[in-house]
Design a protein that fits this description.
Order of helices and strands: HHHH
Distance between the termini: 36 Å
Number of domains: 1
Helix content: over 70%
Radius of gyration: 17 Å
Structural class: mainly alpha
Number of strands: 0
Number of helices: 4
Length: about 140
């Protein structure tokens, strides 16, 4: 019986690593991009940097919801989306704090809001589109 429990825990760890890797990897990409002091937005116009923040955090929320959906035993859209919302807010906040220490960059509360919105939208799209598609196929 004990060998079955150990095998189960190894499977759980592999599952956690497998589904968490995209979130961690993409978080590293965001961190790296925030470290570039001369980064400019390819989109021009009013609030162009806010659009970039939404686009930057959209995959983060998508990957985070994906990981939560496959790792957590109870799958509830509302609770997963709340975790994505909170996770996007906290990582967006830490990203802005990180930028305070990068020469040529600054922190902005509106950027945190845009990051949070982008992450939430990514999680929402995963919840509504991908899971619904998987149910019918």
């Amino acid at each position: 019986m004990r060998s079955i429990d150990r095998h189960q825990s190894q499977t759980d760890y592999r599952k956690i690593i497998r589904f968490s890797f995209p979130v961690v990897f993409y978080s590293g990409i965001i961190f790296y991009a925030s470290s570039i002091s001369t980064l400019t937005s390819p989109i021009k116009g009013p609030f162009s940097d806010k659009y970039m923040h939404v686009l930057e955090f959209f995959p983060f929320g998508f990957f985070l919801f994906h990981a939560l959906w496959h790792i957590r035993p109870k799958r509830l859209f509302a609770s997963e989306l709340m975790v994505v919302l909170l996770g996007s807010f906290l990582y967006g906040l830490s990203d802005e704090i990180h930028q305070l220490f990068v020469v040529g960059r600054d922190a902005n509360v509106l950027d945190v809001i845009a990051d949070t919105l982008g992450g939430y939208l990514g999680g929402f799209v995963y919840a509504k589109v991908v899971i619904k598609y998987k149910r019918y196929n």
